[in-house]
Amino acid sequence: MLARVAKTLTMVERRLHRIFYPAPEVVLRGKQGTHELRQRYQRLLVQIELIEKIFSLVSLGIGIWRRQMRGKRRLRSEKLFPAV
Q1: Is 8 exposed, middle or buried (0-12, 13-18, 19+ CB in 10 A)?
Q2: For the whole model, what pTM was predicted?
């Protein structure tokens, strides 16, 4: 009976060793992957900020251009139909 328990424990120990032996390497690879992913995420945030600034500038430019065009239209219509 004691021999059977010892054999079972040895078998369990071997299986656990096979399962957990590569664990530190896997954890380190996962840690490295997480670090790289965080770095990529930070770079993407910087790029998103830059794109948002570009869109804001384009939007501002379009707004200014529209205001100028409205003013020119008013001037043209005043020339064609002067106020009496």
Answers
A1: exposed
A2: 0.56
Q: Please list the pLDDT of the chain residue by residue as tens digits (84 residues).
A: 899 999 999 999 999 999 989 889 989 999 999 999 999 999 999 999 999 999 999 999 999 999 888 877 776 666 666 665
The sign one gets for the Cα dihedral 18, 24, 29, 33 is: positive
Q: Which residues contact 76 (CB under 8 A, 6 or more apart)?
A: none
Please give the full DSSP string across the chain, using - where no structure is assigned: -HHHHHHHHHHHHHHHHHHHTTHHHHHHHHHHHHHHHHHHHHHHHHHHHHHHHHHHHHHHHHHHHHHHHHHHHHHHHHHHS---
Over the Cα atoms of the chain, what is R_g? Answer: 36
